[in-house]
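Changelog note: in this version the structure field was regenerated for every chain. One regenerated record is shown below for reference.
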Amino acid sequence: MILREGPGFLIHSAPDGPWAGWIGSRFLEEGLASVNAAPGRALARLMRLCALLPGGLALVWDHPPAWMEALPAEAQQGWWEALSDLPGLSLHLAPETAAQLPGGAFRAWVHGPEPPTGPLGERWRQGTLAWVRRTGGPWRLPDLGCPPPAEEVAPGWLWGEAVLPVAALGTLASGDLLATALVEAQGAAERGMAQRLAAEAWTGPPFIRRSIGWRLALTGGAEFHRASGSWKTAFGQLRALAALLQERLRAPIHLGASSSFAAASLLGRQALREGLPWRASLPLPPAPGAFTPGLAADPRDPAPLESRAQLPPDWTATLDHPPALLLRTPAVPSEAGALTLLERLEPLSALRWLPPELPPPGPFDPDHPWIPAAAFPYPPDPGNGQQRSLFEELD
């Protein structure tokens, strides 16, 4: 992966091809290997494709897994566990598909109109599954992008992503500096991809130039809110910046939020090191000079669940795909407690629970460690008082 740093932004890209992508399971059958005839070969070819995409690959399972019925239960569980454990791969399922799958410790995102309940909801609250609200329309892939609306998810790609703090939008709104850096990164990736295709070293499905775009991701939302910033103004600047970049790059721009701890830390240290204007929203020493990942409160610090799960109210009108929110708890939440929390959040984002039985995700920052799970608040019980929200505490 190539990391380019500019004043107020980071760019992640690959040297010789797409940085990330997504593919539907039907196109997996046609373009890589038949899961029905050779499930092991399909896993191997997916692994090779993931190795080419440093930003990750989303596999959207958009057809029934009926071929599994002929296999023993243990073989079925082993295949799904191996699939979801491929480095860089995220599995996305509809609720009806997830209900047909065997048990096991496989990890996936479930996209449905209502939060999972029953056995599926138990696995969601245990942290092996995550939930994204989807009421029809296109699949919205957290931390990645939004495939075009279609019955089947066609292969799609990203040249890379640009991460920037919300507080820097006003300075970067002209887009000239960021657009120039993205044009250079895209040109290098296109030339490298042309050589790869000429050498027949591309192991994925047929590459179509019009199916590739960029991701523009925000970070530092908690600091922006603490500084009493206007979200309406910030989202307007983001839309204007995306329109300018789309015209310059001749590619779609996917708007989202970045949950990367490393990117948020690098941008915070850059702001302090170079004396950039948005450093004023960072916490004072001895706190680490780093932005908070995403738009909500930091998942590594004890805080009310609502402050870690609620986003600016206007985010759905601007962002193409929901931010991924990680909710750490001192125990597996009850179904009633989880549903009570969701009733207080509107609009809902992509939610994953992190009980103490699961290790927190890396990379681990020695300047900002994960606080032990016992220090985090319990999920709310029905009838208890409402916790203060991040975006209401200053009202």
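Spot check on this record: Residues 138 and 148 are 6 Å apart (CA to CA). The chain has twelve helices and twelve strands.
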